[in-house]
Amino acid sequence: MSSTAPEPGDAEAAGPPPPRTGVAGWFRDRSELVVSVMLAGAGAVVITDALRMSTAFTQRGPVGPKAMPLVVGALLVVVAVALAFDVLRGGRGEAEGGEDVDLSTPPEWRTVALLVAVFVANIVLIDIAGFPIAGTLLFWGAAFALGSRHWVRDPLLAVILALVTYVVFGELLGVTLPGGPLEGVLSWGTGVGGVGEL
After folding, report:
1. Full-model pTM
2. The pLDDT of residue 27 is above 70
């Protein structure tokens, strides 16, 4: 009886890998619990903020502004509990059919560190330099961290994105973003920071 080499699809047809042993293996096999904890934390934050919301000046009927955040927070907690229950019963997420991510490849910590540095720099600079400048650095820095090296196109697109975002939030949505040294230039005479005075 001749032995045949296993087909590429045989490993997938064999089913899920056997469970790992030990505490570390138990947690690794149930890594989806991290998502459950994050969802529960987000729900708790939303519910807490909603309960602390002052509604005396915004109440317009039987359903106040607290209702929607409370519903969203409660749904987040319910989904977190359901996910945790499913994972603890042995449920596992399956990779999509076309997914070609090699889970054995270590993460690119340099990219993660660059993205974190870009976001931290944006947080520090937004009140000092204003959103147009800090936003430009954010968009350009994120593109650089993700591997783009177009030295003319990237900064130009970053400037356009930052200015468009500033104008849309200030002029159309009425949300004041810090303008920094460019605040007077970008206000177009409609009010401070591009927001019209009521």
Report:
1. 0.48
2. no
